[in-house]
Amino acid sequence: SKKLNISNYGMVWMSFIKGLVVGLLIYHFFINWWKVNNMTYDKNNIFAKILRGEIPCKKIYENEFVLAFHDINPQKKVHALVIPKGEYVNLDDFTSKASEKEIAGLIKGIGTVAKKIGVSDVVKGGGYRSLVNVGENGGQEVPHLHFHIFGGEKIGKMVS
Length: 160
Ligand code: AMP
Hints:
Layout: H1 2-37, H2 46-51, E1 59-62, E2 66-70, E3 78-84, H3 91-97, H4 100-116, E4 128-131, H5 135-138, E5 147-151
Antiparallel strand pairs: 1-2, 2-3, 3-5, 4-5
């Protein structure tokens, strides 16, 4: 009967460990889901103010989905920003919440702006680089999704 007791303990431990693993998996899944779905958008970020017309910008282009303007502190000869009109903190927030129309609108907007500022290959502008910074490791400063467009000269190494 001693043997039986030991194996009972083993069973109890196994169930406990299994429960713990399943619990941790559920917890991990829930935390990630919560993080993605509860990114709080700061309505007072500088680009939100530009969208509301409270702060001026050197506007390049606007349609129902996007607004594009020149960067206030250009890193290259040409440096433009393309932002969605919707309230999205970053690319993760955008890709998980935006509609197909908004997503298409933003990508098309980048192409349109590249043409308008004369850097696009389509208008023999020599090409450009478009990039988006996300979060802390990405070095994102303004918490409203924005695509950078750099051009007008050789842009150099992909990352420095
Ligand atoms: P990021 O580091 O990717 O968040 O880039 C933010 C960019 O926004 C920087 O390149 C800034 O120079 C630019 N920026 C900040 N404030 C303004 C503004 N009021 N008008 C235009 N560009 C701005």
